[in-house]
């Protein structure tokens, strides 16, 4: 037994055991038993550390010669739960931020211009705009729909969870259409994310190595560029400050959007971070002490960039997880 060995031998085996931590218990036990047998056959029985190192080698070098033969257990129980978790929390965070902005932000900044999309009376959009005006501040209640439904998939699984996801996405989309003349437009990025939360697991789990193909990423990049271009154009209208204050952040977002098809994780993270910074900068520009610019346009540009970067990052994380899983088989 190990307790009958000299202290130097016991220390050597303990160090070797730590170096073999990447192996399974059975593999580690087998290697230690074999090493213990080797030590018992040494002339000095392992009484001297120098003899152990000379005969057997450094524990780290010995451990480096072994590779695991038994697959390790994944900490994530299923791919669907993994995708749901990495999608849900950022959506929830953006939902809370948007709800807080719509409920409290109007006290400090100009959120949007009334009927900023130019709806005409007598059209369906004009009717929706009139309905929004008649509801008044009650429209802001819809801002809490994504807050509620973004986290439900974490606690409700299976078909009931999928049904709730669809209901949340439909309700948020309805709120966007109802209030698209002004405040409802703030919910547009959340509607995109909630629908992505519904369809992404279905698409990504078609195969164990599923990943967004070039066509998907190119379409996402083009859609994001269109959103950035439109919001930049609308933001420049009536802006009293230097136009470069809008054009420079827009150019940064556009450059990162162009990198989406390249599947570079750093560019996805940079797109998320830049989107958040644009949202903060838009809030500052909307303050009465600065430019009193409508917050809607920088918020949409930043939030849509956040959504695009987050979805691309989540897809990359799923692909990496699937690849690591297959490597263990």
Automatic annotation (TrEMBL):
Keywords: Membrane, Transmembrane, Transmembrane helix. Pfam families: HAAS. The chain crosses the membrane at residues 86-111, 131-155, 215-233, 239-262, 269-291, 297-318. This is DUF1700 domain-containing protein. It comes from Glutamicibacter soli.
């Amino acid at each position: 037994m190990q307790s009958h060995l000299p202290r130097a031998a016991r220390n050597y085996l303990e160090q070797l055991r730590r170096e073999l931590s990447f192996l399974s218990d059975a593999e580690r036990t087998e290697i230690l038993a074999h090493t213990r047998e080797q030590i018992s056959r040494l002339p000095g029985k392992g009484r001297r550390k120098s003899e152990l190192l000379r005969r057997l080698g450094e524990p780290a070098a010995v451990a480096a010669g072994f590779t695991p033969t038994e697959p390790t257990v994944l900490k994530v129980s299923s791919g669907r739960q993994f995708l749901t978790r990495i999608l849900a929390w950022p959506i929830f965070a953006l939902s809370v931020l948007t709800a807080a902005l719509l409920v409290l932000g109007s006290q400090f900044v100009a959120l949007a211009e009334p009927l900023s999309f130019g709806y005409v009376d007598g059209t369906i959009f004009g009717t929706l705009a009139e309905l929004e005006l008649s509801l008044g501040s009650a429209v802001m209640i819809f801002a809490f729909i994504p807050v509620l439904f973004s986290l439900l998939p974490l606690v409700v699984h299976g078909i009931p969870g999928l049904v709730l996801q669809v209901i949340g996405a439909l309700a948020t989309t309805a709120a966007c259409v109802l209030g698209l003349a002004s405040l409802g437009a703030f919910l547009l990025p959340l509607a995109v994310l909630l629908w992505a939360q519904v369809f992404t697991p279905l698409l990504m789990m078609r195969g164990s190595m599923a990943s967004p193909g070039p066509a998907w990423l190119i379409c996402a990049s083009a859609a994001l560029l269109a959103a950035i271009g439109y919001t930049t154009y609308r933001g420049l209208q009536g802006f009293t400050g230097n136009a470069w204050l809008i054009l420079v952040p827009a150019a940064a977002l556009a450059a990162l959007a162009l990198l989406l098809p390249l599947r570079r994780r750093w560019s996805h993270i940079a797109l998320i971070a830049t989107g958040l910074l644009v949202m903060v900068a838009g809030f500052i520009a909307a303050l009465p002490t600065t430019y009193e610019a409508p917050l809607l346009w920088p918020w949409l540009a930043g939030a849509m960039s956040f959504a695009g970067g987050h979805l691309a990052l989540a897809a990359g994380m799923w692909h990496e997880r699937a690849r690591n899983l297959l490597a263990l088989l």
